[in-house]
Amino acid sequence: MRRRVISLAALAVLAAVGAAAAPEALARPRAADTVGEDPVDWTPHVLDGEVEAITVVGDTVVVGGEFSTVVDSEVEYQYERRNIFAFDLRTGAVLDFAPDVDGEVMSLAPGPDGSVFVGGAFQGIDGRYGRGLARLDLATGEPVEGFDAMINWGDVRALVPSGGWLYLAGSFSAVDDVARLGLARIDPDTGAVDPRFDARLSAPEIGRVKVEDIAITPSGDRLLAVGAFTRVGSTRRVQAAMFDLTRPKATLAPWSTDAYTPLCRDGFDTYMRGADFSPDGGYLVIVTTGRLSGRRLTCDTAARFETYAPGRTDPTWVNHTGGDSLYAVEIIGGAVYVGGHQRWLDNPYGHESEGPGAVSRPGVGAIHPETGMALPWNPTRTRGVGVKAFAATPLGLLVGSDTDELGREFHGRVGLFPRPE
Questions:
Q1: Does the pTM of the predicted model rise above 0.90?
Q2: How many structural domains does the chain have?
Q3: Which of 186, 187, 266, 384 is a good FRET partner for 30, with 20 to 30 A between their CA atoms?
Q4: Residue 23 near residue 327, CB atoms below 8 Å
Q5: Nearest Cα residue to 254 out of 306, 202, 309, 303
Q6: How many angstroms separate the CA atoms of 163 and 410, rounded?
Q7: Residue 96: which domain range?
C-alpha cells in the first residue's frame, strides 16, 4: 500500500478531525484484530515496587524491575525475589530461579543455551561484582562462566540480541574499559566489545549521552537508537538515529528526522522513551514523554516512521495523549500497543485535558498502524507511573507496570492479554 508522508502541522489537523469525525475511510479494525481485553488468570503477582522489563526464553518468562515479593496466581504462596524472577508462560508457576540482584533491573533479553541477559543499575549479583550487566543460567540462576562484561558506571536500559551479537544501550561511557558512549555491541558468549562497532554518539548541548531504548529490525539490517544525544560522529541526529548493520563497521543509515528537535518542558535531557519495529521491519514507532502537549509537538506521543525512507523524514502519523507520558511500545499483529500513564489517545488538542475527539485509554491502548487512530481495544489499567514493559509471546501480550489492576481485575504488576482464538 502506498503511504504519504506529510508535515507535522498538517498531520495534527487531520488527526484531530479524524478523531472527532471517525470517517469510514479511517474505520478502525474490529476488536478481533487485537489481543483480548480479559487477562489470563494464571500469571503470578508482584506485590511491591515496579516491573520494568520482561523477556521470554522458550516457555520461561523472566521479569525484572525493583521489587522484593512475588505470589502465585491464587495468592497462596509467597516468594522472596529480589528484582528478578521467572515463571512458566503456560502455567504461571513461579520457578526456582532466584538470583540476588542488588539493584534495579531495567532490561532483559534471551541468551544462548538457556540463559538470560540482565541489564540495569545494579552493582552485582549473588555477591559477585559485575556492574550493570550479566548473563544468568535460567536453570541455576548463577552467572554464566566466561561472560565477564560490565559497564563502568550508569546503567543498561536496553538489550537486544541480533546477528550473533548482543547490543546494549544506556547511560554508560565504557564497557570493559573500552570507551563506548551509551551504545555498544558485544560477543554474547564472552562479553568482549566489538571494536568495529562504535556509534560515536555525543551530546554537547545536553551534557552526557543516555540512550533510552534501541530496536533492531527482524531481518537485522537496521538499528534505531533513541535518547539523549545530538550527534553521531560529526553528523547531527537529535534524539533519534538509525544505523546500517549490514556491514561489520557501524554506519549511519540514510534516515533522519527533525521531529524531535523541538524542546519539551525544561528539565528533560531527552523525552524519548521507547521504540519498536513492525514485524516486517517496514516501519517503526517511537513513544515519548515530555509533560507538554500541543498538536505541533511530538511530546507525549506515539509516532510512526517508515524505516527505509531516504534522507530527512516526517512521521507518517502522530497520536497525541494530550500531555501524558508513554513509556513502552510493542507492535504485533494488526496493532501498535502503547503503555504509560496516559488517560487518552487521539488527543492532539488536549492540554492535560480531554480535547475534541479524544478517546479514553487509561494506562494502555492500541493504535491502528495505518491510520494512526486508537483502536477499540480498551482493557484499562490503574495508571500509576505507567507501563514500562511489553513482551510478545505465542500466547499473547505480556504487560509489566507498577500497579495492581489490569483489565478491571487484580493483576499485581504483571498480566497477559491472550491472543484471540
A1: yes
A2: 1
A3: 384
A4: no
A5: 309
A6: 39
A7: 65-189+210-243
